[in-house]
Design goal:
alpha+beta; single chain; five-stranded antiparallel sheet; 2 domains; SMI1/KNR4-like; 228 residues
C-alpha cells in the first residue's frame, strides 16, 4: 500500500458514486504519481464547445472527468485512449457517444445516447469487427473512469513495473490484500509499496515504488516474468 493512501477505503467509496470516485482519483494520483493540479483538465467553455459540436449534452460525470484530469495523458492515454474533446464522436448505428478507444482500435467504450441525461450513467463496450454489438460495461461512468485511471497508472513505465502470465492455480489473495473490484474481469491487490492488477485470472501487471518491492512480488508469484 502506498504511504498515506487508503486504497481499500477509497476504492470502496469510489464505487458509491461520483463524489467518492473523484476523491479517490485525487488521493490515488497523489500517492502513485503526480497530484492533480489546475490545468489538468479542460475548462467548461471547451466542454460546452464539444457539446455544441456533437449536438448532445455530456453526462455530468463525463464533464467532471474531463474537467478534473482530461488533459493528463499519464492517467488517460498511456495505454488506451480517453478521446480528447475534439475527437469525441457519436456512433449513429449503435446510438452511442464514444469516449474511449483501445490502443490498437480493437475495442471502444461509450454511453448510450438514451442514457446521456443521467448524471452518472452506465457504460457500454464494443469489440471491433463485423457484427460486434454494444454490450454493458461498468454500471457507472465514474467507476469506469476510476478503472481507467488505475489501469493507466499501473502500466506506466517510468518506474519498477513487470508483467506475468499466471500459472494455473495461483491465488494472489494468499499473499496480497485484495481490494474492491473496480473494472470488469479485473481484480486489484496491494501490499507495501505495490499495486497489482489481475485480468481474467490470467494476466498480472505490477507497479512498485522500489525494485526491492517488485522483487518480493516476483518471488511470491511463480511464472515467467517479462522483466524479471
Amino acid at each position: 500500500m502506498a504511504d498515506g493512501c487508503d486504497m481499500y477505503g477509497g476504492m470502496t467509496r469510489a464505487l458509491l458514486g461520483r463524489e467518492g470516485a473523484w476523491a479517490f482519483v485525487r488521493d490515488f494520483t497523489a500517492c502513485w504519481g503526480r497530484p492533480l493540479a489546475p490545468g489538468d483538465g479542460w475548462d467548461e467553455a471547451e466542454i460546452d464547445a464539444a457539446e455544441r459540436r456533437l449536438g448532445v449534452r455530456l453526462p455530468t460525470a463525463l464533464r467532471e472527468a474531463y474537467g478534473l484530469f482530461g488533459r493528463r495523458d499519464d492517467l488517460t492515454r498511456n495505454h488506451d485512449t480517453l478521446l480528447p474533446l475534439k475527437e469525441l464522436y457519436v456512433d449513429d448505428d449503435g446510438g452511442v457517444l464514444v469516449y474511449q478507444v483501445e490502443n490498437q482500435g480493437c475495442a471502444y467504450w461509450g454511453v448510450l445516447l438514451k442514457d446521456l441525461e443521467q448524471d452518472d450513467p452506465p457504460t457500454v463496450t464494443r469489440l471491433d469487427g463485423p457484427g460486434a454489438k454494444w454490450e454493458p460495461w461498468e454500471p457507472r461512468l465514474s467507476t469506469a473512469c476510476v478503472a481507467m485511471v488505475m489501469s493507466e497508472v499501473v502500466l506506466l513505465d517510468d518506474g519498477p513495473t513487470d508483467y506475468v502470465e499466471l500459472e494455473v492455480g495461483t491465488d494472489l489473495g494468499r499473499e496480497f490484500r485484495r481490494l474492491p473490484d473496480v473494472g470488469r474481469e479485473t481484480r486489484w491487490f496491494t501490499c507495501p509499496d505495490v499495486l497489482i492488477r489481475e485480468i481474467a485470472g490470467e494476466f498480472v501487471n505490477v507497479r512498485a515504488r522500489t525494485e526491492a518491492a517488485l522483487d518480493a512480488v516476483r518471488e511470491a508469484v511463480p511464472g515467467d516474468w517479462l522483466e524479471g
